[in-house]
Amino acid sequence: METTITPLRATSLGRAHLSYLPQRPPVNLSFQDLSYSVSNGKASKLILRGLNGEFHSGQLTAILGPSGAGKSTLLNVLAGYRVDGASGMICTNGEARDLASFRKLSRYIMQEDLLQPLITVQEAMLMAADLKLGNKLNKEKKAVVVDEIIDLLRLGKARHTTSERLSGGEKKRLSIALELVNNPPVVFLDEPTTGLDDVASSTCLSLLKRVARGGRTVVCSLHTPSARLFSVFDHVYVVAEGRCAYQGTSAGVVPFLRELNLPCPTTYNPADFIIEVSSGEYGSHLDRMVAAVENGRCQRWRDYGLEMENSGCGELDIEQLNSGVISSHTYEYESSGYEQFSVLVKRMALQTFRNAGYLRLRFGLHVFIGVIVGALFSKMGYDASKTLFNFGFCFACVMAMLYTTMMPVLLAFPSEVMLIKREYFNRWYGLKPYFAAMLVSRTPATIFFALLYLVIVYPWTEQPMEPKRIVMFVTICILVALISESLGTVISSTLSVVNSMFVGPVVTVPLMLLSVYGIGNGDDPIPIVWRLARACSYMRYGLEGLIAAVYGPPRANLICPDEVAYCENRNVKHFVKTMGMAGVSYWVDLGVLCGMLLATNLAAYYLLRQRLSPNYAFRAVKVIGQFIKTKISGSH
Ligand SMILES: Nc1ncnc2c1ncn2[C@@H]1O[C@H](COP(=O)(O)OP(=O)(O)OP(=O)(O)O)[C@@H](O)[C@H]1O
């Protein structure tokens, strides 16, 4: 379908005045014999059992059911968030769903409000508009779109508040607002009222109903809504034990149950009652309910009471739709890779500068470590009686570069991945622009802090003040810092914070030990296995590079203090030989470090891609991992 952008008239409902948004086709969603199972290594567990149903555009649909019934799973499968393990047919407008095309048309708002921190509502909305609408609209029109959505979701008062300071309800509304920016025809929401009080839930649901009235298919999974909230829904789909226990209007619930000889007490909330009945609190009636609605096939209750309520979708003035066909949609992003890159760099830079506390902490940390290292190795650069200690200084620099850059990544990146996952799934941007923006935005800070540390320690420890040696030393330190940062990204791109913090040291300690393996051996050869293992340690190349920068030829003999009778390591060449680094070339080390930086970044990119959309090999590895985990936990 050609996406045309025309100003839309205000709807006759006078509620959803959205101008300039791309017109989209209405999307009716239906599914037949939908099953979903998970394998836990030993056996597979059937979670959804042959469900059928239809969710129409212009309607607000609730998926209800007892806890553990399969509501979120159904939503995940319909949204395409979970694909493996699903069987059956999912159709859009009567035709088999094409997942890639469907993802472009649908948005999934997850239970947790994963919002970019330190960005105001207005900024977040404008950035979302830049990413999702590209250059099809000029700045002024994008501002109009943003203002209208902010008004629609009543976020005007919080316009200049940063996302972490928003209330629970405002966060939820911002999550919804961000996904409405390019007018998606289908919106899925997992538990949109969780954590909200009754008033906030009511506001949220009536806003969603307005969104639906704009012609979108809005589907939410919900726990037990109050009777007032329940009546807001146009369509209710009850799931119990992975089967459909009711499908129809909210008004149809009571007569449906009455027909099955399950009269709802007049003072009772019908939503609570149908959930209690389906969960077996009044005996086992689930089979009868499932049979009465033919596991979701029966349409008898679909329009029940709609004439009375005058709220059927037939009454709607759905102006934001046109008659396009979905299948001819292009799968491209609305904005170019470069546009995505520049918006993301701007967003990341803004977040970095606003995070003053973190910047101050990082600044303080580098100064603190610089002072400690400087004091420990004070004036040892020219002192022939302390040459061995000066070697220790070079090693300390490698360690400082390793831990000061890797640890923040291990701590912060796993949460960032969750955010990327949401935005990537909802097609805000591609991974390449994101990854490039991440590298561009974080590298200057890494270089700045490495320099801050070196400005303290280099002169304090009296290393040679020759410009060439300084540049060589600084370059190696920066490369070690950048590799450590990328290695942190490799580790944390697939692991949780806890696991990352565990795996980080587990990976780096052997690399650290290997970097000093064979030191002091002089010319004695070390076994090939250890040589090969040592070749994998970037810290080894870092250490060699620093030694070459400081002691590489031409360097005069060191000064032996008067009070010391004999300085064994006065001759630099002799010292380097004793350390087993006689044949070391600075340029080879530099080249290998550059290669390793490239390799770690490629690995980080690959793993992040697999985390966001895993290929078969990666999924197989995950299943094998789960299998091993089950075996291990089963054997205890
Ligand atoms: N990956 C999985 N492995 C094993 N069991 C799973 C997995 N995912 C879901 N389940 C099980 O499937 C059932 C349905 O889960 P789901 O999250 O869809 O329920 P729900 O209806 O949304 O529940 P709640 O209202 O409590 O959030 C639960 O019993 C859950 O334990």
UniProtKB/TrEMBL annotation:
Keywords: ATP-binding, Membrane, Nucleotide-binding, Transmembrane, Transmembrane helix, Transport. The keyword Zinc-finger does not apply. It holds the Pfam family ABC2_membrane. It is a multi-pass membrane protein. GO terms for molecular function: ABC-type transporter activity; ATP binding; ATP hydrolysis activity. It is found in: Membrane. InterPro entries: AAA+_ATPase, ABC2_TM, ABC_transporter-like_ATP-bd, ABC_transporter-like_CS, ABCG_transporters, P-loop_NTPase. This is ABC transporter domain-containing protein. The keyword ATP-binding applies. PANTHER family: ABC TRANSPORTER G FAMILY MEMBER 28 (PTHR48041), FI05267P (PTHR48041:SF15). CDD domains: ABCG_EPDR. GO terms for cellular component: plasma membrane. The chain crosses the membrane at residues 363-382, 388-413, 434-458, 470-490, 586-608. Its main location: membrane. Residues 29-266 form the ABC transporter domain. Belongs to the ABC transporter superfamily. ABCG family. Eye pigment precursor importer (TC 3.A.1.204) subfamily.
